[in-house]
Amino acid sequence: MARHGEPTVPGDLRHARGLLFGGPDARQWVLYRGEERATVRPDHMVVANTGGFLEALARQGAGPVLVPEWLAGDRLASGELQRLLPDWEGASLTLWVVWPNHDFQSAATRSFVSWILEQSAGIALRGR
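Structure (tokenized):
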């Protein structure tokens, strides 16, 4: 970002080396500000299917990344990462944890569900 300055609108990200999450077809970011939508396709990109890897690259200055705030929250708080375009956000994600509905759940299942809830702190959750 140093070469092109800090972005003020989504289109400014076009010239960045984008760190994109997804598979081989991931080629763009879709950002939202209320009902407004902006699609940005960076000129140069690194694509990976591991958000933690991309977040680590961003900490090393490799380029901007769009990751869930819960993944980067500690680094944002410490100043290792900086939130760009604070009025814009990525699409919301749905996280499902499904397990058998019975009274005798295994300790491993209870432990996993507790871990998921800890990891997703700050994400809107809905129980059934």
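The helical segments are 51-59, 69-78, 107-119. The domain at 10-90 is CATH 3.40.190.10 (D-Maltodextrin-Binding Protein; domain 2).
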